[in-house]
Amino acid sequence: METKYIFVTGGVASSLGKGIISSSIAKLLQARGYNVTIQKFDPYININAGLLNANEHGECYVTVDGHEADLDLGHYERFLGVEMTKQNNITTGRIYQSVINKERREEYRGKTVQVVPHITNEIKMNMTALGNKFHYDFVVTEIGGTVGDIESLPYIECVRQLKWELGKNALSVHLTYVPYLAAAGEMKTKPTQHSVQKLQSLGVQPDILVLRAEHEVEEDMRRKVALFCNVDADAVVQSIDVPTIYQVPINLLNQHMDEIILRKMGLPIGEKPTLGPWNSFLKRRQEAKRVVRIGLVGKYELQDAYKSIMESLSQAATYNDSKLKLEFVYSEELTSDNVARTLESYQGIVLGPGFGQHGVDGIYVAAQYAREHNIPTFGIQLGMQCMSIEFARNVLGYSDANVKEHDPDTKHNVIDIMEENKVMTNIDGTMRLGSFECVLKKGSKTEKIFGKEVISGRHRHRYELNNAFIEDFEKAGMKCVGVNPETRLIEVVEIPELRWYIGVQFHPEYESTVLNPHPLFLSFIKESLESK
């Protein structure tokens, strides 16, 4: 069949959940047996999300091929269980960079380069690239930003053009907000009407409306919206607040969202998908009785900076038949004076990833407390590096142990860039980005968790555990049990004498999905449940 394109736009306000709606639509179509992917077009000028401030933008998600992407790609992978790549996330910066490079190579043969048609043609080429190259049945495209934003206009124009060119092979889904005014005691549809009018003024008539609301949107109100927005009455669905984002596909299924899409695109309806494993996951989540208390120690105040970690812990808790009670501990405020009363109630501690020096002292303190009190502890990227430095300071006695970046004069540069392993990956400098192989030491705790010796993990960091200190670590009880076979760089450390004290250089949270939770998170939660 010809590739079908579904464009998801948002109106009225940001943060309504376009990524969750896009993921849910794709999940329903995937459940019907279609080959589906999702892509995100971000209107910011950055080339990628790599240099965006985590405290403002949230998590930077890394794909298997090393692309630094918007956090919505994490939702795509967690819902679909399908790996995304650089092609699944395009920014305005990349679009303009490509067009300018073509202009410098004289590919436009001296023509005046303009937003229309040159920028829009570049956008359209990227919008259809996945379908043309991999022949997906459906490509769901999320347009970042809010309709009416200046920076989103070229993307809306491309949606207009593609809807005209592709006919029934293109469909528009518009997500809007229906606010509840407490003073009036009622919900208001006027913002939705204005949002649709703005979209229509740009030449795009939405085929389906999704009404985001905190309360039930009554059928009469949905019919009113349909009438004033030129949308079929049965093509107005609601997305109200639910206990978990993983309930959203079921809610859309119950409102026949997949059937509406198939009917409008001229495809047979077929049998309603059961989503058996997905429903089983939701049932286990709902019926879980035990509670596991986890403290996430991190240097970023915006908790979305740890979105994938939070979701991975939640999934692992469900598969351990427990409810996750996750509390964030801001490392900047954690000291040796308050660490005991801050961390003593947690059954497990996660030391989060990050970049830069601020807040790392609090992570050192947390690592020491967790190690000395034998609390299950999971260090990820910076967390693993802090575990190593803390061990060097307080067990090996290297009081000046540090990251070379933070203390250029240290004689014990436990964490450093290994000169022989510098690899230039982009203009930002030396970074290990994307998926790399790791060989686990046979018989180690980590190897037993995975049940195999060769694994892989996605990386995003510059600094490594200095191989010159491996022998010292090993003798003192911190074992280096995971190694990259090509570079010999250390990927995993653990202290086997403790119940669960493991640090990994890679990001396992990027590879944990709803139906395939990551083994490390499963094991960590299991051990945490048994710790207190």
Describe this structure in words.
The protein is of the alpha/beta class and 532 residues long. It is 36% helix and 22% strand. It has 18 helices and 24 strands. The strands form 6 sheets. A 9-stranded mixed β-sheet has the order 13-12-14-15-24-23-22-19-20, with helices on both faces. Strands 5-2-6-1-7-10-11 form a 7-stranded parallel β-sheet, with helices on both faces. A hairpin with a 6-residue loop joins strand 22 (479-483) and strand 23 (490-494). Helix 5 packs across helix 6 and helix 12 packs across helix 18. The model has no long low-confidence stretch (mean pLDDT 94).
TL;DR of this structure?
The chain has 532 residues and is α/β, with parallel strands linked by helices. The protein contains 18 helices and 24 strands.
Protein traits:
about 525 residues; alpha/beta; nine-stranded mixed beta sheet; about 20% strand; globular
Query: What structural class is derived from the secondary structure elements?
Result: alpha/beta
Sheet with the most strands, sense and barrel status: 9 strands, mixed
Q: Indicate the multimeric state.
A: single chain
Number of strands: 24
Radius of gyration computed on alpha carbons: 25 Å
For the largest beta sheet, what order do the strands appear in spatially?
13-12-14-15-24-23-22-19-20
Q: List segments where confidence is low: pLDDT < 50 over at least 5 consecutive residues.
A: none
Which percent range describes the beta-strand content?
15-25%
Cα shape: globular
What's the pLDDT, averaged over the residues?
Answer: 94
**Helix content range:** 25-40%
Cα end-to-end separation:
55 Å
Put simply, the count of helices is 18
